[in-house]
TrEMBL record, chain A:
It comes from Cardamine amara subsp. amara. GO terms for biological process: GPI anchor biosynthetic process. This is phosphatidylinositol N-acetylglucosaminyltransferase. Its EC number is 2.4.1.198. One of its GO terms (cellular component) is membrane.
TrEMBL record, chain B:
The keyword DNA repair does not apply. One of its GO terms (molecular function) is glycosyltransferase activity. PANTHER family: PHOSPHATIDYLINOSITOL GLYCAN, CLASS C, PHOSPHATIDYLINOSITOL N-ACETYLGLUCOSAMINYLTRANSFERASE SUBUNIT C. The keyword Coiled coil does not apply. This is Phosphatidylinositol N-acetylglucosaminyltransferase subunit C. One of its GO terms (biological process) is GPI anchor biosynthetic process. GO terms for cellular component: membrane.
Amino acid sequence: MAEPPKLRVLMVSDFFFPNFGGVENHIYYLSQCLLKLGHKVVVMTHAYGNRSGVRYMTGGLKVYYVPWRPFVMQTTFPTVYGTLPIVRTILRREKITVVHGHQAFSTLCHEALMHARTMGYKVVFTDHSLYGFADVGSIHMNKVLQFSLADIDQAICVSHTSKENTVLRSGLSPAKVFMIPNAVDTAMFKPASVRPSTDVITIVVISRLVYRKGADLLVEVIPKVCRLYPNVRFVVGGDGPKHVRLEEMREKHSLQDRVEMLGAVPHSRVRSVLITGHVFLNSSLTEAFCIAILEAASCGLLTVSTRVGGVPEACNVLPDDMVVLAEPDPDDMVRAIEKAISILPSINPEEMHNRMKKLYSWQDVAKRTEIVYDRALKCSNRNLLERLSRYLSCGAWAGKLFCMVMIVDYLLWRLLQLLQPDEDIEEAPDIFLHHHGEKIN
Amino acid sequence: MDKNFAGDSNPRPKWRKVAYGGMQIGYDDNYTDESFLEEMVMNANVVRRNLLKVMKDSVSISQYLCIVALVVLVWVHTLESSLDENSLLVLDLSLLASGFLILLLTEEKMLSLSLLLRYLLNISFFTTGLYILAPIYQTLTRSISSDSIWAVTVSLLLLHLFLHDYSGSTIKAPGALKHPNLTSCISLNASVVASVFVASRLPSRLHVFAVMLFSLQVFLFAPLVTYCIKKFSFGLHLLFSFALMGLTLYSVYALHKLFFLVFLFLVLLVNVVCPYWLIKMQEYKFEINGPWDEAKLCFDITD
């Protein structure tokens, strides 16, 4: 006889499968590990193309693809109160206790957190990216974040740099912010059974070819390295606006046989591309937490990366053992690649993979997240007036505006309760899939 | 053996700022070290401003305001027929000559004879073209009512003042490095269109030619002349600006008392109140830099 789940978590974000990325992976793996620990997890996201309605994924993970259209960069159109009815229905149906929102850029997440707070649920937020303070877009985003996090129970950040950034942007107290890093699925990212020969050293790059991910640095670095080392070749996977510049660079230096452009690589094929290489190159200009480096290290590749954002924290295992860091400057990166090539013979991929298994695992992340949920549940319940005082401190004009928004939200909620009482919402039965002693890494 | 005092069996290891290895023993995940935010840098690139310097720099703005006010005064006098076309032509020629003289004196590169001859040739082409096209301007807005003309002129002049490049000159002086940007080109065009609208209200062809020449001379070349004066000597620039301000205030006073008060208020606002306000607001400046910033590329991206 299965016991009722200990926690009932709703993950909310605009970013989920079939979209691929760091946030999507994080939500999926975290949900799977929480399901294995015996909790109930439901995911809420917006509809992707024709994929709308309720779907079930591995392990009984229920996903609500809410029929809202995305409008720019996969985020839903912000209609402050539009999502209140559907969020209320989902929370009542699944008897949710904790709502966990992901990614500051996701409007669905902010709206759901706001509605959940109005209805008295406990709320946790995870921030996955670093943002600046100076440009107009960032200023507005930070104000929205300040509103969202004014009344939150707990927050999670994926690196210490990200924690500092989030605390500065939102004005949260640092004691409320937990640092839980991402992890990597070491079962999927295994090194090749036969290591490729080191006569020709292959450097792999897999990233979106955009300015933010340092595609311009690649354009400078690749010709220099190819000139210095005749036995080095590059494999570049990924697509984006800077694709054209890389093609031009190939033609200008006649590197067609030494630089292979693969185009967009689907996530399932990433491992097969990685194991053809010896070195992984990451040239991004800003990174809260780079999962790509962990995936490469798990496949036994030596990594060369730029020293930005949260990368130094994630990778300082032993000096220059698994990762060689460089400043985001072409000459320094060439020097780092030279160093990586020189220490390549002493690298043992299997040993690297085993070490990664111990350092990062999704089960560990899930257990630490569980602790955060327990802390959130222990936070005291506040009524509307106490919560409004928290919003007032957000700013001279903004504070009063936020209070008005929350008051209207509260009134709309009461109206909905009048029109469709809580008891009338049908509760969904819990599904239990039994796993007998099965472990995933 | 009983140990009466229980010492710490395992003092907890030092907390490290790393992400790997799971939870650190003895520390919660929300533990905040003293090294929290220690790499944050505040106000690293902020320029501290001095009140006197800001006031001196604001003189350029009020100087240009005076020039525009003088142009509007000449328009008003011409439209009221208190200034006839011959005196206007004399004014044009004297302005042209004095502008040239100032450029010659302040700009060393102008002294070469071939450059001078080339400029003279360009100006004679320009003047001839304007004279030939004057009849077109005269009948341009005959079907439009006067009220619309005045409204459009005023709004175009306001647009011109807002978007004007007060620190440089849209017409490049020989040797100037700054390229004109979009807003300064828009402002120049707005002022030219405004002068065309005003000129189209005048009775005779000579009137139209004289006013157009005057307006275009001032709008196109006055920024260049003032830029050269400023570059040559700052004291001369201040003297010139104050003289101009005095002339403008006297002329506006002679025209209408209310406009005089408004203009005086505007000049005081630009020269005294705004610099003080800017300095007062500096204390709220809070620029944050840290390890989370996007790295800046040290090379230029050439496509």
